[in-house]
Amino acid sequence: MKIILAIGTGSFIGGISRYLLSQFIQSRIVSTFPFATLSVNIIGCFLIGIVFGFSERANLNPEWRLFLATGILGGFTTFSAFSNETFGLIRAGEIFNASAYIAASVFLGILATWIGYSVLKMN
């Protein structure tokens, strides 16, 4: 239960942080390009790299890692988890699996969004 509360608290912090940062960025850039989301995703990827790098270097407590990576950064952006998993596959020399994961995530993600949208647009 302690881990669930830590992840939930982290998700709360991350989700609010994503919203506030997105609003801050979007209010300063007039464009149809989603700079706010792109910025959040890149910042999240950078931060998850720091969390996992620090975790390996300093033997970070697994509960803290879950709070930071799954909770805060998961609430901030799940793209960071995708990036970290892909990086792990690349580090392990699994280039084919990394490429397949990238292609499947992007293609199937867009397809699933379209299907979900289409289901609700049916008359």
Give your account of this protein's structure.
The structure is a single chain. The protein is built from 5 helices and no strands. 85% of the residues lie in helices and 0% in strands. The longest helix is centred in the C-terminal third of the chain and has 27 residues, at 95-121. It has a domain at 2-76. The model has no long low-confidence stretch (mean pLDDT 91).
Separation, N- and C-terminal Cα atoms: 44 Å
Radius of gyration: 17 Å
Structural class: mainly alpha
Count of alpha/pi helices: 5
List how many beta strands DSSP finds.
Answer: 0
What's the short story on this structure?
With 123 residues, the chain is mainly α. The chain is built from 5 helices and no strands. It is globular, with a radius of gyration of 17 Å.
What is the topological layout?
Elements: H1 2-26, H2 35-58, H3 62-76, H4 79-91, H5 95-121
Helix pairs in contact: 1-2, 1-3, 2-3, 2-4, 4-5
Features:
0% strand; 123 residues
